[in-house]
Amino acid sequence: MRPRGVVSLAVLMLAGCATTPVPPASLSDTQAMIAPKVIFSVPSPAVLDQTANVTQSIIAHVRGQSFSFDVQIQLTPAELDLAALDGFGRRGLTVAWKANTVTATPAPWLPKFIRPADILADIALVYWPNSALANSLAVTGAVVTESASARRISANGRDVIAIDYGPGEGWKRSAKLRNLAFGYEIDIQSVEIAG
After folding, report:
1. Mean pLDDT, residues 163-181 taken together
2. CA pseudo-torsion sign 74, 75, 79, 82
3. Check: CATH 3.90.1690 for 5-192?
4. What is the pTM of this model?
5. Per-domain residue ranges for the chain?
6. Pairing state of beta strands 91-98 and 79-85?
7. What's the Cα-to-Cα distance from 4 to each of 1, 16, 152, 194, rounded to whole Å?
8. Closest-CA residue to 70 (of 43, 88, 96, 49)
9. Which of 172, 154, 175, 153 minimizes the C-alpha distance to 164?
10. Tens digit of pLDDT for each residue in 108-140?
11. Which three-class secondary structure state does DSSP give residue 134?
């Protein structure tokens, strides 16, 4: 298993297999391992029941280093399209999730072990409704708790993921995701673009 989600593009290019075990080959295109023995089936974009066009500035912290990149997300209840650019402005990855099918186009320089499901999982953990996450995580025995400014995912009585939110709602607020199981953090600044 590797660090996942929005951070995957930056962290996995740099951290690789040294930080986490390899995920099981049996994972589907919409399943990610978010902690040891915790498989998360990412609920479809339909659970949001919204249309959004979002630009994100991401800073990932891993092993005492920081890396930044930009993400563009276009979302409807039927699909999610994502484009991620590295710090040099190069397109590193595009992901399209339509009709229950995930397709990805990685740049040739992107490591082969980066899984789009890992990126989708981090996005969902931060932005999807609590009830949708709870249903997906219950299968593995993990629990999600939420307050107005925080969300926690716990397994076996211990927090494995902590998310803290800035003021605002939904895509219009900052977020910090800390994967306590795999030892990385993501700072997210989002701007929802009108129209």
Report:
1. 94
2. positive
3. no
4. 0.85
5. 5-192
6. antiparallel
7. 8, 11, 16, 29
8. 88
9. 175
10. 877 776 788 988 999 999 999 999 999 999 999
11. helix
